[in-house]
Amino acid sequence: MKPKSQIVNLPVYQPGKPIEEVKRELGLEQVIKLASNENPYGSSPAVLEAITRELANVSLYPDGSAVELTGVLAKHLGVERSNIIFGCGSDEIIALITRAFFLPGDETVMADQTFSVYKSNADIEGAVTIEVPLKDGTHDLSSMLAQINDRTKVVWVCNPNNPTGTIISEQELTSFMDRVPAHVMVVLDEAYYEFVTDADYPQSISLLERYPNLVILRTFSKIYGLASLRIGYGIARPEVIDLINRVREPFNTSRFGQAAATAALLDQKFVQECAELNASERDFLQNEFTRLGLPYFASQGNFIMVDLDMPSKDAFQSLLKQGIIVRPGFQVYPTYIRVSVGTPEQNRAFVKALENTLAEKAITSP
Ligand SMILES: Cc1ncc(COP(=O)(O)O)c(C=O)c1O
């Protein structure tokens, strides 16, 4: 057999251990997962009702063009239906963009520490990834601009950036977009849009009129709490949506996903409450890091990247033994962990465990 040469050495995704397995292996009664930036408050109660109603229809294919959900979302965002495409998570929209645009040897530009799915999909299509170092944990847009050439097809800007949580402002974005050549698509990944509280954050949808090469990604996995139902979306000019739609499978989102997303969108009170709780708990954690003398990147998301000044894998193991799962292993920041903002109770349990980890480190380090 002759697979595509570019996939032969691709790493296979290693999912985190399920909570139940961690409990069994370590003999723990309670395990708190703060590793995947999920919503610790679950989802709107209206979602359960919507899913229950859909149970009667499991034998029927979903609506391939998600007519009802598209209408509700278009109204919510103030765009036309033709501006929207849904995917099996925004992960799928990333894959569809690479599938529709990259030929082997094309170039794509992204930060050196950002959401890994951009590069893995570019690799699959044989595109060459140019990674531009973050500056103080933030996208360095002028250096990214300097890497664009005739072979560049797509630039990825994750805002807030996963894993650092930093944002670029509207002014920074527009001055970048003004300089990006028209043949280059800019994908602005706003998976954590609803958590942002900084007034300088771009109102990106209003920029679509000015920039025909802009694609915005958002998701129902984060603040809406629907990660398991796999539904995200892209917003762009109709001619761009049409191109991405050509490589989409006909039934790429499920009945449950569509029904849940529709119900979730109609409950903005839940979204608002979660955003407020996240902001105050994000402040709590950041203040605790300051108290403990730990450098961190000021975050606008529902996660924070903090420097523990020890190999992050060791910190991970120490926290795991205490029943807390966080995300270690960031290439550019080997002593940082990323922790999702949990409920008040979870965050206090995390801080207590973190203090034990730091005390252990103080004893063992020379
Ligand atoms: C920046 C960013 N983009 C996209 C995604 C994909 O989310 P989903 O496929 O669940 O919509 C994630 C998930 O963690 C993310 O952090």
From TrEMBL:
<dbReference type="InterPro" id="IPR005861">
    <property type="entry name" value="HisP_aminotrans"/>
</dbReference>
<dbReference type="InterPro" id="IPR015424">
    <property type="entry name" value="PyrdxlP-dep_Trfase"/>
</dbReference>
<comment type="subunit">
    <text>Homodimer.</text>
</comment>
<dbReference type="InterPro" id="IPR050106">
    <property type="entry name" value="HistidinolP_aminotransfase"/>
</dbReference>
<keyword id="KW-0808">Transferase</keyword>
<comment type="similarity">
    <text>Belongs to the class-II pyridoxal-phosphate-dependent aminotransferase family. Histidinol-phosphate aminotransferase subfamily.</text>
</comment>
<keyword id="KW-0032">Aminotransferase</keyword>
<dbReference type="InterPro" id="IPR015421">
    <property type="entry name" value="PyrdxlP-dep_Trfase_major"/>
</dbReference>
<dbReference type="InterPro" id="IPR004839">
    <property type="entry name" value="Aminotransferase_I/II_large"/>
</dbReference>
<dbReference type="GO" id="GO:0030170">
    <property type="term" value="F:pyridoxal phosphate binding"/>
</dbReference>
<feature type="domain" description="Aminotransferase class I/classII large">
    <location>
        <begin position="30"/>
        <end position="354"/>
    </location>
</feature>
<keyword id="KW-0368">Histidine biosynthesis</keyword>
<comment type="pathway">
    <text>Amino-acid biosynthesis; L-histidine biosynthesis; L-histidine from 5-phospho-alpha-D-ribose 1-diphosphate: step 7/9.</text>
</comment>
<dbReference type="GO" id="GO:0000105">
    <property type="term" value="P:L-histidine biosynthetic process"/>
</dbReference>
<keyword id="KW-0028">Amino-acid biosynthesis</keyword>
<dbReference type="Pfam" id="PF00155">
    <property type="entry name" value="Aminotran_1_2"/>
</dbReference>
<keyword id="KW-0663">Pyridoxal phosphate</keyword>
<dbReference type="InterPro" id="IPR015422">
    <property type="entry name" value="PyrdxlP-dep_Trfase_small"/>
</dbReference>
<dbReference type="GO" id="GO:0004400">
    <property type="term" value="F:histidinol-phosphate transaminase activity"/>
</dbReference>
<protein>
    <recommendedName>
        <fullName>Histidinol-phosphate aminotransferase</fullName>
        <ecNumber>2.6.1.9</ecNumber>
    </recommendedName>
</protein>
<feature type="modified residue" description="N6-(pyridoxal phosphate)lysine">
    <location>
        <position position="222"/>
    </location>
</feature>
